[in-house]
Amino acid sequence: MYKEHHLLEQPVALLTSIFANTNRDPKKKREPYKIDDFFLFQATEERNIPSSTYGAAAMELVKNNQFPFWALFVYKDLRSAANGPAPSLLCYSSDDVMVLAPSIRNGDLFGMIIVQESAYGEVRLLQSPCGKKIKVSVPRYSGKFFAEENASMHIL
């Protein structure tokens, strides 16, 4: 039922975003409104909101001034998802790769992967805020930046 409503609301959401952007004060709101901002019936699984564990880890890193500036493209989604306590191991990161709320299983590093294009297909030495180090092989992705939760990288 909601899927049908979501399909029907898309033209209205588009017009609403156009109207909102024409009346937006760029000094107060720098980012333009997106069509997604006006969806009421979009299914939860279709939204790009990370899980609360990743959000809590990111907010703890922000609080400690350890969240990298290049990863700010996912900040808004992570902030809205933050709920509950942060995990004991917040992340592994380098200059262009970050894995939030990491865990190791079967020779792979799992978590929310946030990566810049410069790291695609490369080997990186990642370090946690507490000093633990791990070497990984970064998969190839598309786009200048990439973020995916519950993803993995092979540990070398």
Features:
156 residues, 26% helix, elongated, alpha+beta, 3 helices, single chain, 27% strand, 2 domains, six-stranded antiparallel beta sheet
Averaged pLDDT: 85
Strand segment tally: 6
Give the count of structural domains: 2
Report the β-strand fraction as a percent range: 25-35%
* Whole-angstrom Rg: 18 Å
How are the strands ordered across the major sheet? Answer: 1-2-3-6-5-4
Number of helices: 3
How far apart are the first and last residues' alpha carbons, in Å? 47 Å
Helix content: 25-40%
Structure description:
There is one protein chain. The protein folds into two domains: 2-46, no CATH class; 52-155, no CATH class. It is α+β, with helices and mostly antiparallel strands. A hairpin with a 3-residue loop joins strand 1 (91-93) and strand 2 (97-105). It has three helices and six strands; from the N terminus they run H-H-H-E-E-E-E-E-E. The protein is elongated, with a radius of gyration of 18 Å. Helix 2 (52-63) crosses helix 3. The chain has helices spanning 2-22, 52-63, 75-81, and strands at 91-93, 97-105, 108-116, 123-127, 133-137, 145-155.
